[in-house]
Amino acid sequence: MSDAYSSNRSISSPNWLHRTQLEKLLHREVVDVLACQNGLVALDLGSGEGQYKPWFTSRNARYLGADIDPEGGCDVLCVGEALPFKDNSIDVVFSAQVLEHVSSPERVLTEVERALTPGGTAILSTHGTFPYHPTPEDHWRWTQTGLRTILNNAGFKSVELHPVGGTFSTLALLNGWYMSLLIEKVLRRLGPVGWALRPLRKLLSATVNLIGLGMDRMFRSFSDIER
Question: Domain for residue 34, yes or no?
Fold first, then answer.
């Protein structure tokens, strides 16, 4: 259940803009939840190599990483559709960019809701818009209303949705992603000359990211003025 989305933090990566905004939001949510009580049991569903583990252990939470891939060193080997935990046994379920990869998101969410303690919290993120990226599979995209519907159907009574980025960030992601793929193919055909030109591809991706970030901020500023 680990996701290649989290593999690159460089500004020259096409997903840098969305990743940085997403991680800022997720980190804030984790800090807010764990500030309420020490010793909470936190499950990282789709933990991969445990890149988010310090967020929890540094705040005295008992961290459990769960994944389908044993190579990442997870604590629990399982699928999201059948969590090996008792009812009402997990205080916090955290899952970043995993839900779109599972075959049955409704079943996963039902299992998460079952495992949560009364008053427990699920911090989940997934895609509304993102290029196809099978790791190992890629099945789903949601609108906010669609995501709220499957959460409610799984038994979640209180749901808060927070979009990450805006229109221009999304356009930067899509344009940067596919431009990067196209340029890479061209550079490979150029042989040694292409290798020499690879820094230009990174510069282009970084420029697209910065333009998307600037346009989103400008658009929000104009919206605030109009209100």
Answer: yes
Lookup: tokens for 31: 């800090």
Residue in the structure block whose two tokens are 């995209």: 141
Using alpha carbons, list the distances in angstroms from residue 175 to 125, 128, 161, 204. Answer: 22, 16, 26, 11
Helices (H) and strands (E) in the chain, counts: 6, 5
User: Would residue 94 count as lying in a domain?
Assistant: yes
Show the domain range for 221: 167-226
* Token digits of residue 97: 């960019």
Do 106 and 177 lie in one domain? The reply is no
Q: Tell me: the pLDDT tens digits for 90-126?
A: 999 999 999 999 999 999 999 999 999 999 999 999 9
226 pLDDT higher than 50: no
Domain boundary among 153, 186, 204: 153
Confirm if 55 and 4 have CB atoms less than 8 A apart.
no
Q: 86 and 184: one domain? A: no
Count CA atoms closer than 13 A to 126's CA, side-chain side: 26
**What's the rounded Cα separation, in Å, for the pair 69 and 46?**
9
- Whether 8 has a pLDDT exceeding 60, the answer reads no
Question: Measured between alpha carbons, how far is 215 from 211 in angstroms, rounded to an integer?
Answer: 6
Q: What is the pLDDT of residues 110-120, one digit of tens each?
A: 999 999 999 99
Hey, what are 79's tokens?
A: 């699928």
Could you tell me if 115 and 87 are in contact, meaning their C-beta atoms sit under 8 angstroms apart?
Answer: yes
